[in-house]
Amino acid sequence: xxxxxxxxxxxxxxxxxxxxxxxxxxxxxxxxxxxxxxxxxxxxxxxxxxxxxxxxxxxxxxxxxxxxxxxxxxxxxxxxxxxxxxxxxxxxxxxxxxxxxxxxxxxxxxxxxxxxxxxxxxxxxxxxxxxxxxxxxxxxxxxxxxxxxxxxxxxxxxxxxxxxxxxxxxxxxxxxxxxxxxxxxxxxxxxxxxxxxxxxxxxxxxxxxxxxxxxxxxxxxxxxxxxxxxxxxxxxxxxxxxxxxxxxxxxxxxxxxxxxxxxxxxxxxxxxxxxxxxxxxxxxxxxxxxxxxxxxxxxxxxxxxxxxxxxxxxxxxxxxxxxxxxxxxxxxxxxxx
Length: 337
Fold this sequence. Notes:
Radius of gyration: 24 Å
Distance between the termini: 55 Å
Strand content: 15-25%
Oligomer: single chain
C-alpha cells in the first residue's frame, strides 16, 4: 500500500510553505485567493485528504474505525454491525457507522468523509455499482480496508475480502428439500446478475443439475414485499411449485405471509427454506428453516482480523470464507410438520 500524501507533499507541489498549506486547510483569510486555489489544485494532484481528526485521536490515544453497511434495514446487517461495533469497543476502538442504502454514490461520499475525519481503518459491506469512486481514494489515503460479505473491488491483496460460504449454503438448502421429496423447487429473491445472488443460487443450481431437476427462479429485491408478491405469483401462475429456497430470510418471511393469504400452509403444503438465520426465524410461525451464518461469530472474526491488521500489521489473506450450516425447522418438514 502506497504512502499516504502529507501536507509537505502538497507544499512541494504547490511551491509554497508547509505553513501556507496549513492556513489554506483552516480557510484562513490571510492566504491570497490565487494561492489558496493553487494549493487546492496541488492537493487534488497528489491525492491529499485532510485528516481533520488525526491530532485529536492521537492525543486521546483512541482509534476510530469506519463501518459502512449497504442495508441496515435488513436484520442480518444490523446484527452484523452491532456485533462488529461491540468487538471493536472491547479493544478500545470507537466505531462510526454509515448506511448506504444500496447506493454506491452515497457510499463514496460517506467513505470520503470518514477518510477526512481520520479513521484508522475501514470495514465495508459494499453497495453494488461504481467501486472506483469508493476504493481509489482509500488506496491513495493508505487506510487498511476490508471488504466484508460482498466483494466489488477485485484488488483483494489491497482490500481483503471476508465472507461466508454462500455456495455451500445453497447446496445444503436445496439438498434438504430434495431429500424431503420435493422435486419442483424454486429459488426466490435476489437481484439478477449480482455476485451475491449468483453465489447463493449456485449451490441450488448444482443440486438441481445433479438430481436432473429443472430449476426455476423468481428474482427481485430481497424484501418482505417481494416475498409476499412471489408467493402470490407462484400460487397464481405456477401452482406446480411445491418448495422454495429463498435468497434470504426476509424474502422467506414475506412468502409465509403470502402463502397464508392463499390458504396454503407452509410446511404441510409448501416447503420453505430461508438464508441467514436471523433471530425471527425461530419466532415466526411456522418456524423457518434457514441456512445459519452465525452472524455474531462471523462479525467477531472479521473485527479481530481488522484489529490484528491495525495493531500487529498482520495483513489478512486475500479471501476468507467462514463455515455455514442448515438449521431445519417446521417450514421445510412437509406433512410431518
